[in-house]
Amino acid sequence: MPGLREAALAGAALALTGGVAYVIWKLRDTKQNREAEKVTLKQNLNAEKQEKLVEKEIRTETAREAPTVSQQRQARGSQVLVLGLDGAGKTSLLQCFVTGSTEQEVSPTQGFHAVSINREELHIEFLEIGGEEKFRDYWPMYLKKARVLVFVLDSSNSTRFPLAKTSLHRLLAAELYLPLVLLANKQDLPGACGVTELYESMALGSVGDGRKLCVLGTQVRKGSSAAHPSVQDAYELILEMMNSNCAE
């Protein structure tokens, strides 16, 4: 019966073809699953690797943004930044530091006033910035280059203490470890506040434990051939602080 035999062969061929097709599809499906698993695994590994790289970059950036105290000090120059409200006597004190006298009349600084002093192996630049309101916005820009901040205060004018305090604390908040020398100037004038009273009025007890801080009373004798001993003491103290900071 050829018809039956042909039908049987055709059925067998169809069954075989279907089986082969099923096997091929199964293998292809399994291969695709494995490839998909490989892709997923690769993506997971890449994601983990990317996360580690991001974490490393964050740690690196954090370390860069938060330098140690020693790194901050090493990055500074040899500059003494002299600031204070207008009329405090900054320019007269600088003249005493440089010349040792006040025989020459000086005018209030309008803008910037820089003088350099060489003593033994120490080179120091004193940079004074005017204390008028229009110049105070420039003060914070020069903190990074300073090794010592000298803030001069007119100790005889208590009405300006609150403004001086606000201005000073804004600077100290920007530089947590910058040494400070507060000069309570014009101690020879009537009504001048003493060092202890000024320390409390300026709230210096709250400026941080890691900061070197000194408060001295000074007075400038106009037209004198020799600086007052208090000015000489202040000058020597600033030099000592510069020396100690450079050595650290």
Observed structural traits:
248 residues; alpha/beta; Rossmann fold; 2 domains; six-stranded mixed beta sheet; 6 strands; globular; disordered N terminus
Instruction: State the domain count.
Output: 2
What would you give as the CATH superfamily of the largest domain?
A: P-loop containing nucleotide triphosphate hydrolases
Structural class: alpha/beta
Total DSSP E strands? 6
What is the straight-line distance between the termini? 111 Å
pLDDT average, as an integer?
75
How much beta, percentage-wise? 15-25%
- Spatial ordering of strands, largest sheet: 2-3-1-4-5-6
Binding site for Mg(2+): 91, 109
InterPro entries: Arf-like_GTPase, P-loop_NTPase, Small_GTPase_ARF/SAR
Binding site for GTP: 84-91, 131, 185-188
GO molecular function, one term: GTPase activity
